Amino acid sequence: MPDPRFTTNVDDLDELLSVVSVDNIDDVETLLMYLFERPLTVRESWDDDEQEPAIEVIVDGLGYVSGFPLNMLEVARGCAEVAGVGHYEGDPPGEVDASDVAELDEEQLIAALQKALGKVRLFNMMVDGEEDGETAE
Questions:
Q1: According to DSSP H, which parts of 4-105 are helical?
Q2: 40-80, pLDDT tens digit by residue?
Q3: What are phi and psi of 106, to 5 degrees?
Q4: What is the pLDDT, as a whole number, of residue 36?
Q5: Residue 4 burial (CB < 10 Å; 0-12/13-18/19+)?
Q6: Distance between CA 79 and CA 45 in Å, rounded?
Q7: What integer pLDDT is reported at residue 102 of this predicted model?
Q8: Staple 47 to which of 28, 38, 67, 99, CB 3.0 to 4.6 Å?
Q9: Strands of the sheet with 52-59, listed across from one edge
Q10: Pick from 77, 34, 86, 35: which is nearest to 59 by CA?
């Protein structure tokens, strides 16, 4: 079943953050890191071809630029196909082999994004707890 957090086309970064229910672009970066199981960078950018705001994902020196309007499914697929993002060799593969993201059907990719978003929320709770002086014992 489609999840509007990942299938809704948005017109700018603020709308993307609101629809995906994250606080900032760093959370989008963390979401994609969990999805692809590898370090990468996400930043605001400009699509020179379309002359519109965009987001850029950079991994291993390769970049993928997606202009607005966009949705997270498009960004994930674009990263997997254009930038050649596959599984990070430094870690053992997870349940979803990140090198297969381009091959996942929409339902499978949504499930992988949901799982990655859950990890982002857990990560943020741990970081927020550390900032508040709480530590795991």
A1: 4-7, 13-20, 25-36, 72-82
A2: 999 999 988 888 999 999 987 888 899 999 999 999 998 88
A3: -60, -45
A4: 87
A5: exposed
A6: 15
A7: 77
A8: 67
A9: 41-47, 52-59, 62-67
A10: 86
- In which band, very low, low, confident or very high, does the pLDDT at 109 lie, cut at 50, 70 and 90? very high
Q: Give the C-alpha separation, 7 to 11, whole Å.
A: 13
Q: What is the largest CA-CA distance in the chain?
A: 52
Report the C-alpha gap between 124 and 70 in whole angstroms.
25
- The 8 Å CB, 24+ separation contacts for 40-46 are 40/79, 40/85, 44/13
* Amino acid sitting at position 32: L
Pick from 59, 58, 66, 71: which is nearest to 15 by CA? 71
Residue position matching structure tokens 């700018």: 12
Question: What are the Cα distances from residue 28, in Å, to 49, 50, 92, 132, 134?
Answer: 23, 22, 23, 23, 25
Tokens of 15: 């709308």
